[in-house]
């Protein structure tokens, strides 16, 4: 049946011992993913190692550490890190673990400090990671600090348009090469600010008891909206008069999906969201056109969800990061994006939009979480074995660069994610054989 496969179909529904190549299968007419990749704890642990410890992973935005001494803690997979700005203004990405006994050095999520002091034995580190002082120094030999060194830097760190990424792998392609053709859409996202400057605010947070990949898939899924969010759209049309806008954004066939190399993908639709009054929208578009030209302004203002594999979405009014905790538990942070140079009322209404859509008390995000949990529960039925991501496969087109283009409700983004997933997961040691 599968004449052109990424990998062979496993002989039994749970034969993951045969390797990861058999868990994603593609033919000219179908694309399937085995349900064990969402439910198997061993696969999850290997994802942390083979995906999150080898890829470029989003960790923070530079607006979160604007001044010397500012810091922000984060994780890459499960590994704790500190993003800090030193007194000369340089950004550093450091492993958040003391060189003495391995305790977490910085326990606050964010702040400003001239030094980091380990709470266990009082060792001191500078904002660039250097070891500044060892408590009760007389117990150590001469030159001890120099031999030991300070906080370990993450092997690679890079910033693109304010987005800070880290890689735990010392080798690999540059961040710009990793982003590839998706860079154009990162630029368009940043340029939603007439000044080309985006700042993020404190995040909305939520967690759900299901796999991280449901969130990765869903943000660029143009197929589910009119079904999952039907009651939300009816409610908002009744109380806020947004029926026309929501119907437009949920109609299949309007807009496009794109899949890129390295698992990046997006969903986009023409026009802008309808929360802005006509006069205010015109003022905002004029500001964009004055900076970028009318044609680019039109592209900038489109409804667009850009996924940068493996963990961050660039949305119309927020930046969404998901953190894998366990095979069936994920934490999500949604950061409102303040657009410098935009009319104040534009930012106020964008924040209002984010709150009713995607906050803990919103209508849209809670619908999605219910679906994630439902999928996690349904996939316990092992005999079913596979899900299909074949929508639009036969009509999908591909450019010479490898970019794939589909319709707005096609599963082009999801296929891009799993083509890269299987590529990463088939690298390195066999499952369960870590050194």
Short précis:
This protein is 30% helix and 26% strand. The protein is of the alpha+beta class and 435 residues long. A hairpin with a 4-residue loop joins strand 1 and strand 2.
Structural features, described:
With 435 residues, the protein is α+β, with helices and mostly antiparallel strands. 30% of the residues lie in helices and 26% in strands. The strands form five sheets. It has a nine-stranded antiparallel β-sheet. The chain has a four-stranded antiparallel β-sheet with strand order 6-5-4-7, with no helix packed on it. A three-stranded antiparallel β-sheet has the order 1-2-20. It is globular and about 70 Å long.
Q: Which labels suit this protein?
A:
435 residues, alpha+beta, 9-stranded antiparallel β-sheet, 4-stranded antiparallel β-sheet, 14 helices, 22 strands, 30% helix, globular, disordered N terminus, disordered C terminus
Helix content: 25-40%
Query: What does the largest sheet look like?
Result: 9 strands, antiparallel
Report the span from N to C terminus.
37 Å
Helix tally equals 14
Mean pLDDT: 89
Q: Give the CA-based shape.
A: globular
How would you classify the helix and strand content by structural class?
alpha+beta
| Strand ordering within the main sheet | 13-19-18-17-16-15-14-22-21
DSSP strand content: 25-35%
Poorly predicted ranges? 1-18, 242-252, 430-435
Strand segment tally: 22
């Amino acid at each position: 049946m599968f004449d052109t496969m990424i990998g062979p179909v496993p002989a039994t529904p749970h034969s993951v011992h045969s390797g990861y190549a058999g868990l994603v299968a593609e033919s000219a007419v179908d694309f399937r993913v085995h349900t064990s990749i969402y439910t198997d704890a061993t696969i999850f642990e290997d994802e942390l190692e083979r995906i999150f410890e080898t890829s470029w992973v989003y960790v923070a935005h530079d607006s979160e550490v604007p001044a010397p001494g500012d810091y922000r803690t984060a994780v890459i997979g499960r590994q704790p890190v500190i993003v800090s700005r030193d007194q000369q203004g340089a950004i550093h990405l450091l492993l958040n673990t003391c060189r003495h006994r391995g305790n977490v050095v910085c326990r606050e999520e964010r702040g400003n400090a001239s030094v980091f002091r380990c709470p266990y034995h009082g060792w001191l580190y500078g904002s660039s990671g250097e070891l500044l002082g060892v408590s009760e120094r007389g117990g150590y030999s001469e030159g001890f600090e120099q031999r030991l060194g300070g906080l370990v830097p993450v092997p690679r760190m890079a910033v693109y348009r304010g987005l800070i990424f880290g890689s735990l792998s010392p080798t690999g392609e540059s961040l710009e090469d990793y982003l590839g053709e998706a860079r154009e859409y990162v630029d368009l996202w940043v340029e939603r600010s007439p000044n080309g400057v985006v700042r993020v605010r404190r995040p909305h947070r939520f967690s759900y008891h299901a796999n991280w990949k449901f969130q990765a898939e869903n943000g660029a899924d143009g197929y589910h909206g009119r079904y999952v969010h039907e009651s939300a759209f009816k409610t908002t049309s009744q109380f806020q008069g947004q029926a026309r806008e929501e119907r437009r954004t949920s109609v299949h066939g309007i807009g496009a999906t794109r899949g890129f190399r390295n698992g990046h993908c997006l969903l986009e639709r023409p026009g802008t969201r309808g929360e802005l009054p006509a006069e205010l929208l015109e003022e905002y578009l004029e500001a964009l056109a004055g900076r970028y030209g009318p044609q680019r302004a039109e592209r900038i203002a489109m409804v667009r969800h850009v996924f940068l594999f493996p963990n961050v979405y660039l949305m119309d009014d927020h930046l969404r990061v998901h953190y894998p905790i366990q095979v069936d538990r994920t934490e999500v942070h949604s950061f409102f994006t303040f657009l410098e140079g935009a009319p104040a009322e534009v930012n106020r209404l964008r924040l209002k939009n984010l709150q009713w859509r995607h906050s803990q008390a919103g209508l849209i995000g809670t619908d999605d979480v219910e679906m994630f949990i439902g999928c996690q529960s349904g996939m316990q039925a092992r005999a079913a074995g596979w899900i299909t991501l074949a929508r639009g496969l036969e009509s999908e087109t591909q450019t010479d660069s490898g970019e794939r283009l589909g319709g707005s409700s096609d599963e082009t983004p999801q296929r891009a994610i799993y083509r890269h997933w299987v590529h990463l997961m088939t690298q390195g040691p066999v499952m369960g054989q870590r050194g």
